[in-house]
Amino acid sequence: MRHLANTWFAERLGDSGIRTIYLADHHPAHMPCLEIMRLDWLRAAEQARRLEMRFVAVWAAGAGCHDQDRGARHGLYAYMAFAHPEHCHALLRTPLADENPSLPSIAGEFVAASRMERHMADMFGITIEAAPDARPWIRHEHWPRGAHPLRDDFDGKNPMPPCPCSGDYDFVRSASSGVYEIPVGPVHAGIIEPGHFRFLAVGEQILNMEERLGYVHKGIERAMQGRDAASGAKLAARISGDSAVAHAWAFAQASEYAAGIKPPRRASLIRGILCERERMANHIGDIGAICNDAAFAFMHMQMQRLREDMARLHQEIFGHRLLFDTIVPGGVTVDLGEAQLARLERQTRAIAAEVEHLRSIYADHPSIQERVIGSGVVSVDDARDIGLLGFAGRASGNYPDARIEEAYPPYDELKVHVAEGKSGDVATRVWVRFEEIADSARLIGEMVERMPDGPIAAEWTPPEPGVSGFAAIEGWRGEIAAWVRFGEKGLIDRYFVRDPSVINWLGLELAVREVPVPDFPLNNKSFNCSYSGNDL
Amino acid sequence: MLRMLRQIVRIGTITERLATSDAYERLGRELEDAVKKRFAGSLAIRQVDAGSCNGCELEIHAANNPYYDIERFGVHFTASPRFADMLLVTGPVSVNMKTALEMTYEATPDPKLVVAVGDCAEHCGVFGRENYAIAGCVSDIIPVDVVVHGCPPTPSDIIRGILAAIDRMP
Q1: Which residue in the set B47, B59, B135 is minimally distant from A159, CB to CB?
Q2: Cβ within 8 Å, pair A216-B127
Q3: Closest by alpha carbon to A185, among A171, A175, A173?
Q4: How far is CA A128 from each of CA A39, A107, A211, A534, rounded to the nearest angstrom?
């Protein structure tokens, strides 16, 4: 863990005349939080863009205990986070006015900020100035007027009363004759999560596809408030069930940073094994499902078989098929004996070998290759513009990987190989996933070998009220960014998390332009973004 | 093609037989009999995620994998509620999904069965009832025949729940 304060960003901002105040109650020091003036907000974003920083997230939070100590001049703050390959993450925040809070949009600099700003507007009633897209996002038409769930004066305990719909969602439309609309969802044809897609199509080709999400909004941010760390970890594991390990880890790590707790090395290595197993299982399942969407059922069945083998071993060793509730703040809940480690390692190796064999069959099969090669391209420039994350980013020449950028334990002692794809089509996304399965298997082998003796958890002591922590964890979809702040009695006072899907959903919209409508499922599966993780 | 065939032969049929998992096979036979008797051999299910974290969806998918292969008992998942016999509903019902769930229920022809899958569907789970974004558990919104416990329930629990719902039919 690097504990040196990262002053790089503050110095660069200073060079352009933006004054920053270092906040000492934010951890860790190598991902500092700097307070700037509201009028510098947009300029700071411009600077970040100029410095080729990657946009991570923008969010809001009420004043914490320390802010109130400072004189309670402001009730609300806006935060944004950026990352740089060599200088880690940095957070900026600015106070907002109590009455009619407003904030300039940074979506002109970072297009991915737009939906996050819409989320802020819905949740806090913050006016986003000069927003390129001012439509509500999570807030659906039937929400009561003036309901902003993360405001202190909002009743978060009772279901919102049903209200008559106030207008329709203003989808992108086309006035051209010959363009027709296909509405899909929220209830989809398969066994998947709900969301609405609006296609504009000409003949068989998709002209534009627009996503309308928010259907599985479960008030997770509000539900986090007032929980202790243990109960928060349980909720975090259920932000997106397929990323239970990664989300719980992000929550745990942010909390540990805030509390200044370092999990034992054995715990970190077990976390690494859990996370890489989760990555393998999801990539394996998805490759099968992608092939299935192109009617290559053989591969689907073979891959589902391997995924089930993994789930069964997880049940035996960790007591849960999908590895829920294995990570808690301080460490992990399950210790592994010699025999169990050996079994995990053996199965991982066997599965990786099977996947390699299946991969050669997949590569030799013209009917699937014909469907995936060249379908749904996200160009390198587009991927960079939206900051595409994870395997989808790595398929389009954009290689952020929190395991390397942040090198959090156990990845500080391991070398992660990044698959560097450029073509950005379905085939490349599948290729990256195959590469990642192989690399995860290798990493698991190394972690089993390095496993030291020792405790599996450090004692959890909550930080003093008002302290916050930020963590970035590379889940199987990509970087999960998490920011937690504790209040009185060790209870969470604000939790913000950005699932990689929030950004990668934009990638899908770009990918399916000029793709035939029947190839949409194939493309959708190649990204497999989380609805639940997006909607919170 | 030859290599595909070789792989298929090498793996063989892994679908679990009487000998390896007695309980599951017996369960499957019962299900198959019930589906034959009540649904002329074919039970069509429409799955509705009303707000789940997608963990339950993964396990419903798993019920279709070659180990469980629920289709061999005549149970299959359909793309539309209009020709479904049963709804398999997951998740606490989010305020934003309530209308869609009600419409899906309405679109399913009578007589219809509803199985609420998972702890969230049963009692809102970890998300809690005291939550502005949760309209309630599944039975608060539509009539439920059977509840399957678990977070998420295992594939065999889900299959057991489907059978229990058929058994409860008059």
Answers
A1: B135
A2: no
A3: A171
A4: 14, 10, 21, 20
Last residue of a domain, one of A129, A145, A176: A129
Residue position matching structure tokens 């996947």: A355
Q: How far is CA A474 from the centre of its chain?
A: 8
In a domain, A432, yes or no: yes
Q: Do B96 and A216 lie within an 8 Å CB cutoff?
A: yes
Q: pLDDT per residue over A55-102, tens digit each?
A: 999 999 998 888 876 655 668 999 999 998 888 899 999 999 888 899
CB neighbour list of residue A382: distance below 8 Å, 6 or more residues apart: A388, A396, A507, A510
pLDDT category at B22 given cuts 50, 70, 90 is: low
Give the model confidence (pLDDT) of B114-147 as tens digits: 999 999 999 999 999 999 999 999 999 999 999 9
Identity of the residue in B62, B100, B134 whose CB atom sits nearest the CB atom of A186: B100
Tokens found for residue A313: 């071993």
Taking CB atoms and an 8 Å limit, are A322 and B127 in contact across chains?
no
Give CA–CA dist A165/A144, Å, rounded. 9
A106-143, pLDDT tens digit by residue? 999 999 999 999 999 999 999 999 999 999 999 998 89
Please state, in angstroms and rounded to a whole number, the distance separating the CA atoms of residues A179 and A177. Answer: 5
* Tens-place pLDDT, residues B47-63: 999 999 999 999 999 99
- State the sign of the Cα–Cα–Cα–Cα dihedral B28, B33, B36, B39: negative
Residue whose token pair is 């450090």 = A458
CA distances (Å), origin A137, targets A96, A103, A215, A535, A536: 21, 17, 10, 9, 12
Whether residue A224 sits in one domain with residue A116:
no
Contact B48 A235 (CB under 8 A): no
- Which residue of B50, B53, B62 is in closest CB contact with A308? B62
Q: For A163-172, what is each residue's pLDDT tens digit?
A: 777 778 899 9
How many CB atoms sit inside 10 A of residue A268's CB?
23
* Cα separation, A299 vs A289, whole angstroms: 8
Question: Which secondary-structure segment (H or E) carries A303?
Answer: helix A297-318
One-letter amino acid of A533:
G
pLDDT tens across A239-250, in order?
Answer: 999 999 999 999
Please identify which residue in the block is written with the tokens 């307070």: A35
Domains of chain B are: 2-167 (3.40.50.12280)
**Greatest pairwise CA separation for chain B in angstroms:** 58
Pairing of strands A76-84, A54-62: antiparallel
Q: What is the CATH number of the domain that holds A92?
A: 3.30.460.80
Residues in A touching B126 (Cβ below 8 Å): 234-235, 238
Determine the Cα–Cα distance for residues A15 and B143; give it in Å rounded to an integer: 64
- Whether A230 and A118 map to the same domain: the answer is no
- Report how many domains make up chain A: 2
Domain that holds residue A37: 8-129
pLDDT at residue A38 tops 50: yes
pLDDT at residue A521 greater than cutoff 60: yes
Binary contact (B3, A194; C-beta < 8 A): no
**Beta-carbon neighbour count of residue A333 at 10 Å?**
17
